Structure formats: structure tokens, C-alpha cells
Amino acid sequence: MTESALFTIFVVAYLFYIGKSLNPPYPREVLEFPWLGSFFLFSSSATVVVAEHRLKKGERGGFHLWWGITMALGAAFLIYTATEWYHLIYHDGLTLSTNLFGSTFYSLVGLHASHVLVGLVLLGIILVASLTGNIKDRHHEHIEMISWYWHFVDGIWAVVVTVVYIIGMQ
Amino acid sequence: MANPTSSLKEVGTELAPAPPGREHGTLTAWIQDLIFTVDHKKLGLMYVGMAWLFFIPAGILASLIRTQIAVPNNHVLGPEAFNQAITMHGTAMIFFFAMPMVFGLANYIVPLQIGARDMAFPRLNAFSFWTTFFGACFLFLSYIFGPGLYGMGAAPDASWFALAPLTSKAFSPGNNIDFWSLGLLISGVGSVTGAVNVMVTIFCYRCKGLTLYRMPLFTWMVLVTMFLVVMFLPPLSAAQIMLVLERFFGAKFFEAQAGGSAVLWQHFFWIFGHPEVYILVLPAFGVISEVVPVFSRKPIFGYPMMVAASVMIGFISAGVWAHHMFTIGMDSFSVTFFAFATLVISIPTGIKIFNWLATMFGGKIRMEIPMLFCIAFLFQFLIAGLTGVMLGVAPFDWQLNDSYFVIAHFHYVIVGGIVFAVFAGFYYWYPKAVGRMLDHRLGLWHFWIFTAGFHLTFDPQHFLGFLGMPRRIYTYQEGRGWEFLNMLSTIGAFLQGVGAIIFIINMIYAARKGKIAGDDPWDAWTLEWITSSPPPEYNFEQLPEVRSRRPLWDLKHPEDPDWRFE
């Protein structure tokens, strides 16, 4: 709930400042729809569900596999964002201080990316704990919480995509 | 976390229970216990202690402010020091006196009232306290660290709501604003985690039979408060993150030259800022709702309406923030909407006042100190509400915004309402926490001097506002007709200081020599009075079972229990 409120404010700031930048680059010129990144992140939501099912059935091997795939997809998303930012910064010259678009874009997408990073760390802790045999049945609830968090981060991405890459590029 | 020595010490104290008010062991053992404790009662007391710790410098700043403007053309504080003083006074009183007080009371009382052994997440509780505490320390270190401009420390100086663009690098070149935004960001994390903790505790740890509909009103109002904290603190954090990005990395959020909007900062700040008022006042309502029935010897009048009104206040408080911004030039639709919402929110508040009065009506009122503070609260909060409604009427606000009328209004809310309720709660629950009663005679002195000082300080400020005295000015010229009222106000401020000192003396005196309280000194009805005073670490030997809203009444009067009428 807290995180939703936090994101709400950044989303509002983004919406409020759409089209108010006084100098280029403008979103339409430099942004591309993140098909690949969205694919990575949204499919990771599905894989985490599969991983949970495997865990409930007691198939540790399957759980590790799908959990690992989830982490790989999350990492791929971050790498995609990193290349996007690299391109924006060094090719298009857009930084946090260039204009309002830069300020709102990096803060909103960056806030989301930081949540993905936190999610990756949490997923990683579970993977290591499970591989070393420290996950017992009573920990299943914790794992469920972490997968909920992961779904939440995905849901936020849906909002961010809508705001930044659909509404913002009109 | 688990430190072998500290756990040994705890075992030791359990074997030989300390007499009330006295701690066994050495100073280092005591400090170690404070640092490693996860007990909700100790953390609650630490929150409260922190609140009083920061109340002292913030109070001293207030008296410095009043001294400066007591007479025209005064030079006790320069303009820069004055700006720092008003900023630090406001910030510290809101975030490091009132908020820790709310969390302290919630921490101490809520688990006892719902018959739980501790909070849901004890270690998270300790984390919340320490982050809040370090955030506060960080803010106050600004006075020491960094020479700042003019060589007097880099305390924040842009007033407690830090309006853009005054906070931009161009206008605030030092690190003053950074201390403000980072300090509050840190303590904000603690507040949010603390709020989640209290919510989970209330939802999941109620004892057998304690349905939501039987829950004590203090717990109910704390629950609504914690929802507000979780929903409306993040806007402030978000805005402060933007401010930090702007000041350190050159982002453009609030910079008009780049198309940014200073008004957006105001919106973000007040989306937090107005619910914050209800975050502080709802627990105060909760205290009043506990004290008034016990000292009127009647159950609370209109319990369902009280709960409904609290929840309504929680909802409506989300839609009134822009009444702080009538003068910045909004379109007429927004002005109408926010004026309307502001008037609507006075309805549930009025319902509450009527219910307290109806509870007192026909009751056998005992004029103990907590009740005195409650009665004063009722008068003062009514006036605070009325001036609030006046300011909610937009044309009236255009005339008086940013004048001393506003200062008088919100100090009536915060001092006349919240601080009085805190005092009532203190006199009511102190015996439970310490095991000894606060002294009645000193309490009377405290009550009358503080109340007189309060009215002497803030009543004249209404008129100063009408006479056109703007807020935040560090001095003024002679001959505007403000001298006499300002002098009165300053005298009142020092009277309040005397009252507060008497209160502190009373607390110290009572901890050593006060009358032994016993489990239930007020003949009250909620669960915290079942257990011993002070309660043992596990709170209850047997978890209680509740069958009505007044479980202790049922125990004391088995021939006429409440649950027969439910």
C-alpha cells in the first residue's frame, strides 16, 4: 500500500509534466516501446507461479529451475533497462537534469527498477537458502509473500508502461 | 540480535522483580537493555521519552520565537536564526514530538487493550523506533555540523513545509534543506514500518472474543491513524526524493525556468500535510474517548457512531488538502470542491464532540486531572474546529491566509487539542506504566498554569491575524497596534513553559515518591487494567477472554454484565 502511494505520486508527477518540457529531447523522439523488457518481466510473473506450484508438489528440482528462470528474466529486464538508459544518456543526451521529461522519466522508471532489484535480491536469498537446504515447509508462506511482491512489481510495470510509453508518447 | 549478556540480564531481572519505578542493575546494563529490547512496552516508553526529549528543544525554540517578536524592532534573533527557529520548531514538534507520542501511546496501550502479549513484529518495532530516532538526531545535528551560512549551523530555514522554489539550490545554497529532507525521509521509513506493525497487531492479535465491534475506541482510532500513515506519508517521502534529486542531481521537478511547477510541491506536501493533522488528532480523540467514559462513570455514548465518524474522517481527510492553497490561484471548481470537503469533515468531528458531551451528560463526573484536561480539550477543540471551518470558507481564507489567525487556529488544534489530550492520556496511563500515581496537587498546578498560558498565548493571536500581522516575520515596526497583543502572547508562552516544567517535575517526583497505584486505580473497564502495574513482560498471565465492550465491568459486576445487552 505504501509503495503504491509512493508510485502514485511519481506517476502523477509524470502525467502532470507530460508535454511541459521546454527543450528537447522529447519522449516521441527518443523512446521506443519496451517490447522486450515487458516480455521479460511479464513472463517472469508466470514462471514464479510455476515455481510455486512445483514447490507445493514437493519437487525441489523443478522449483529451483523455475525460480532460477524467474531470476534470469528479472535480470534480463534490468539489463534491457540499462541498455535503454545507456542509449538515452550517451546517444540522445537525455539525463536527469536535461529537462522535465528526463527528471520524471528517470525517477519513475528508476524507482521501478530499484524495486525489481530488491525483488531480485529477495529471490536470490530464497534460491540460496533452498539450495543449501534451509527451506522447510513452514517457510512456504514467506515464499508466497515474495512472489506476491514480484507480481506487485509487475503490476507497477504495467502502469509505468501505460503512462510512459503509451500516454506519454502521444 | 541475540546478545548473550543482555539476555542474561533479562533473566536476572525476572528472578528478582524490581519495585515499581526503580531499575535494577548498572547503568551499562540498563543502556544495553534499551538498545536490544524488542518489548512493546519498553519501546513505547522509549518513543514517549524521545517525544519529550525533542519537546524540550522545540519548546525552547518556541519561546525564543516569542521573545523575538514580543516587542517591535527586537534583536534577540536575527532574521536567519528566526527562520531556522520557526522551521525547526514546526518540524520537530510535528515529526519528533507528536508523531513519536502517537506511536509511543499506540505501542504501549494497543497490545494491552487488545489482550496481546506483544506487537506482531517485535524486531520491526525496534527498527521503527531507532530509524525514527536517528532521523530526528540527524535533523538536529544540522545545528552542529557544517558552518552553514552566517556561521550558525546549517539548520533548515525554509519553514516546516519547505515551499519550492525557496528550497532550490539557487535560493538555499547550503546543506540546510538537505538536512530537512533526508532527516524526514529516514524517520518516515520508521513511521511507515511502525504503522504496518500496529495494523497487523490489531488485525491478527486480538484476544478471544474481542471482535472489531467490541474493540476499545482508542485502538479503533489508532487503527484509522495507522491507515492514514501508510497511505499519506509516502507522498511526502516521494516529494522529498524529488527534492533530493533536484538538489543533488539537477532534476527539474519544481524549477519554473524549465517548465516545472512550484505549485506541484505544495500539492504533494499538503496531500501528506493535511492527513497528517488527522494522524495526530485521531489518537487524541481516542484518548478522550477512553478517559471521558471512565471519569463520567458511563459507557461511551454512540459507540458505532464514534467508529463510523473516525473512519469517515479518515476517508474525507484524503480530499481536503488544497484548502491550504486557496491563495495560490486555483480554478473555481477546485476551490469549491476543497471548501466543500473541508466543511463536510467538520460533521464527523462534530458528531464526536456531541457524543463526548452526551457521555458526560447525567454521568457521575469525577474531576480528576485527566478529566480536567479532557474538558479543556472539548472547549478548545470546539474553537479550533470553528476557526477551521471559518478558514475553510475560501473568501475568508483569501483575507486571512498566512496571517497570525492561521497560527492561532492550528495551535488551537495541536496544543489545545492534541497536547491536552496527550496530558490527559499521561495522567490516565502513567500509573499503569510506572506503578505510581502522578501527584494530584502538582497536576492541578500544571493544569491551571498551562491552560492559562495556552489561552494567553493563542487567544490574542486570532486578533493579531485580524489586525493584519503576517506569519513568519521576524520583527515589525511600532504603531501598528500589535505590541500589546504580542506581549500578552509572549507572557503566555512562558506560562506554558512553567506549566510544562511542573509536569516534568511531577513525572520525576511521582516515579520515586508517588502513591502506589495498584492494578486499576481509576476503576476502568478496558483490558490494560486487568494486569499488574507496571505490566510484566508477557503482559497477561492468561490471555483474557472478552464478551463485551467493557470486559472489566463484566468481571467486577458478574450480576449485571454488559454482554447481556449485546
Tell me the number of strands of chain A.
0
The total beta strand count of chain B reads: 0
Helix content of chain A: over 70%
Structural class of chain A: mainly alpha
Assembly annotation: heterodimer
Distance between the termini of chain A: 30 Å
**What is the ordering of alpha helices and beta strands of chain A?**
HHHHHH
On the 0 to 100 scale, the average pLDDT of chain A is 86
Low-confidence stretches of chain A: none
CATH topology of chain A: Four Helix Bundle (Hemerythrin (Met), subunit A)
Mean pLDDT of chain B: 90
Low-confidence stretches of chain B: 1-22
Radius of gyration of chain B: 24 Å
Q: How many domains comprise the coordinates of chain A?
A: 1
The helix-strand sequence of chain B is HHHHHHHHHHHHHHHH
Labels describing this entry:
heterodimer, A: 170 residues, Four Helix Bundle (Hemerythrin (Met), subunit A), 6 helices, B: 566 residues, mainly alpha, globular, disordered N terminus
Would you kindly provide a written description of the structure presented here, covering whatever features stand out?
The complex is a heterodimer of chains A (170) and B (566). Chain A has 170 residues and is mainly alpha-helical. Chain A has one domain (35-167): Four Helix Bundle (Hemerythrin (Met), subunit A) (Up-down Bundle), CATH 1.20.120. Chain A contains six helices and no strands. Chain A has helices at residues 2-17, 27-30, 35-57, 60-90, 100-131, 140-167. The model of chain A has no long low-confidence stretch (mean pLDDT 86). Chain B is mainly alpha-helical and 566 residues long. Helices cover 66% and strands 0% of the residues of chain B. Chain B has 16 helices and no strands. The longest helix of chain B has 35 residues, at 79-113. Chains A and B meet through α1 and α5 of A and α7 and α8 of B.
